[in-house]
Amino acid sequence: MKFKWLLSFLMLSQTLSAQTFVEATPTPPFEAVFLSSVAFADIDGDNDQDVLITGGDISTNRVSKLYTNDGLGKFTEVQANPFEPVYGSSVAFADIDSDNDQDVLITGLSSSSGHISKLYTNDGIGNFTEVMGTTFDGVAFGSIAFADVDNDNDLDVLISGLRLPPGPLLVSKLYLNDGAGTFTEKADLFLEGVFMSSVAFADIDSDDDQDLLVTGQNSSDVKISKLYVNDGAGNYTEMLEAGLESVDAGSIAFADVDGDNDQDLLLTGRDGSDLPTSKLYINDGEGSFTEIQGAPFEPVSESSIAFADVDNDDDLDVLLTGITGTEVPISKLYINDGAGNFSELAGAALDGVSSGSVAFADVSSDGNLDVLITGKRGPGEGVISKLYINEGVESSSTEYSKTETTLSFTVFPNPSTSPMLFLSYDSAEISEVTISVYNINGVLLRQQKEMATIGQQVFPVDVESLPKGNYLMELDNGKGRGTIKFVVQ
Question: Which of 35, 93, 168, 309 has the CA that lies 20 to 30 A from 2?
Fold first, then answer.
């Protein structure tokens, strides 16, 4: 997200700077878990980020707990939730039935039902109901990911992991959505079955469809990292000789780390020699990946990684957790210079964990991305679910200069129930302006350019396809920027 204008200054000399994360106080009532998965979403339509936490507690009792946010980062457990308690879990929110609220899929090992994959639909205010009779294979120690793989404007899902007999014990199955939340397995597709897995969708070859990476251990006890290319209709072909490290017990994430508008890749896990690894691959824009030698990332397995712009400088930083080759659990934050060069942020004071999960969200509505970390600490130190609040950039420099003017503008109607918003702006000169719309977590959703003349300008901005929630609109005229929060109801 382009929050540089918020800083209102620029350091004139090289200085030491640090992103400050502090443990949330008062301490949220989160259940401490490992073998876990966590996910943020606005489940109740009040424009803040709630959270679902799954995993095993210190005694490996299964946990699936939902917590609602008051908008300022104070969380309350939802006592009557229908979710099956699981560990060895994976969870993901998605609007599966096109009603503009966040439904959820939960997989894992339960104490009563064994290996499960359960889908729950949301009524729009955070009440969930299990969808009975789904075709999903129940799995544990796997991974799930939603994406529109066949370009029909609904979210399909890939499920991987360990299932119970009869049939194959390891699966990677793609299920297509009919738009109303009914899923059918794509039976003519073969993807390598894996567990201790991680899966991720991304458009790796710039053809506007969702390709797929699958990692994990297959039925022959061999670690794999297989890249599958989508033809646009959800038919996948393995990209042979992709050149990616084969791993299990890891995590993968795509992101444009070097600002060239293609999807690069960070891959972690246990390699073919059962040693921890962390590798960064740069994409040439056509799906060919080259490993960056000398990347600073600590090799880890039993890992979790997440990209986010934690310092509001318009590039994606990364948090990495896991266990090192010396069996030390870590949580390390690496700051991106915008060109894909990362430096570890010393003194971040995050608890080191393995066998956990991490997720970023602006829980306190201050424009900074906070982070939730779950997992197992060192021997005898138990397990955690800790929320760290991002307090922004601290700098040792006192030398500043003004960067750019803060632009004033309005949007109306706000809140909006119409398909169109209007931006009103008093322009002092003829110039091209850029209007950008972001979600509350800083992801660019749309952008348009307009030509402004001198005087009052009114530009229409299409918001018809935006789900209900909070958004940010930014105006940039080349000499200054401004932003306004708006609400779609």
Answer: 93
CA distance 219 to 380: 34
CA-CA-CA-CA dihedral for 296, 300, 306, 311, to nearest 10 = -30
Across 55-69, 297-311, 343-357, least confident range = 343-357
DSSP 30-80: PPPBEEEEEEEE--SSSSS-EEEEEEE-TT--EEEEEEEE-SSS-EEE-SS
| CA 343 – CA 334 distance, rounded (Å) | 5
Convert the pLDDT of each residue in 363-378 to its tens digit. Answer: 998 889 999 999 999 9
DSSP for 375-413, please give it.
EE-STTS-EEEEEEEEEEEEES---EE---EEP-EEEES
Give the other-Cβ count within 10 Å of 81's Cβ. 15
Q: What is the tens place of the pLDDT at every residue in 147-199?
A: 999 999 999 999 999 999 999 999 999 999 999 999 999 999 999 999 999 99
Q: For the chain, give the mean pLDDT.
A: 91
> Token pair for residue 131?
């969808």
Q: In this structure, are residues 370 and 318 in contact, taking their beta carbons and an 8 Å threshold?
A: no
- pLDDT tens per residue across span 375-424: 999 999 999 999 999 988 543 333 333 344 678 888 888 888 888 899 98
* C-alpha to C-alpha distance for 89 and 54, rounded to whole angstroms: 7
This prediction's pTM: 0.80
In this structure, are residues 356 and 15 in contact, taking their beta carbons and an 8 Å threshold? no
| Strand, helix or coil for residue 195 | strand
